[in-house]
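=== Structure Prediction Worksheet ===
Name of assembly: unnamed complex
Input type: mixed (protein and possibly other molecules)
Chain count: two
Listed entries:
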Amino acid sequence: MMSVVVKWARVGGRSERVVAEVLSATLAELGRVGYAGLRIEEVAARAGVAKTTIYRRWPTKPALVEAALRSSRPPSPEPDTGSLAGDLGALAAAMTERMSSPEKRSLARVIHSELDHPEVAAIARALRREAQAPWLAAVRRAAARGELPVSVDPALVVDLVWGPLSARLRLAEEIDPGWLAALIRIVVAGARGVAAL
Amino acid sequence: MMSVVVKWARVGGRSERVVAEVLSATLAELGRVGYAGLRIEEVAARAGVAKTTIYRRWPTKPALVEAALRSSRPPSPEPDTGSLAGDLGALAAAMTERMSSPEKRSLARVIHSELDHPEVAAIARALRREAQAPWLAAVRRAAARGELPVSVDPALVVDLVWGPLSARLRLAEEIDPGWLAALIRIVVAGARGVAAL
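=== Predicted Assembly ===
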């Protein structure tokens, strides 16, 4: 039994290392040649693994690129401060922190420069959906608490904070905390008040 | 006198043609090699003019690229419907129409993929400022009419509609008229109600 456990642990360790090397090689190739130019052969050569090792785990190029981009993101926080404004503020701060790295911004731009490619657009939408999940959860909790009317579309409330914030971060503009606080105040007041109109 | 007028008219005609050819060659080169790779020599060769002809009018590469990108935009409408929601809706519709051309989107992406270049970021900010001018004017008119409290920052109201809309257009997503109308309702209600908080 003991040797089996050790063997598994070793296999796990090696497998995790291979995954990390392949994903990191994918990001490097993506930065070098973009999505359309990316070839699995080049990723394999850079990672020092066989092509079949890559295909076994990620059968298609979009699956590999999506996994690589996902691996480059820090886990998103899931704040639960008790108020919608508090949660949105914490999520916005984490997004600002994440996008302030030039490396992250440049990866985002590689992808955004090829959005006319349907596979790239699908990857971008999938990753955005994942990144917005804790935002949606925060808005839904606010509705469940009665902080928002149930008639308000939670996805729209997310768009209203995420959109202006990402538009600024994309141009590498400073996020003024006063601007962000005023933005959130208007969105929360609007989402509360709109049911009465 | 007559011959002078005719001569001027001829010079003007030729000059306008040269401007159009140089700007169109600049856009083509931008699409081919991007901003960092763009060389005035190549633009001159493509437009069939001397380099000095270009430098006389646009002394720097950023000045030339900014002019070329500006020339590729249709003039922005300046709606004055009498209500903030009406004006924002008309401006958003025009922006959606403009960005629904794959050609325009791809130019926007060329620029956005090189935003880490300080000259590119400066051009993007200048063009966005210009594009947002009629939006700002609409919000200021609403404040002047008493439709919004004067304490609300007009630029923030613009961000709140422009941001979510451009985030969707960037991913080439359909703009649902119901989504847009609900977005504008929340922003207007929030901007009106926030002063009371």
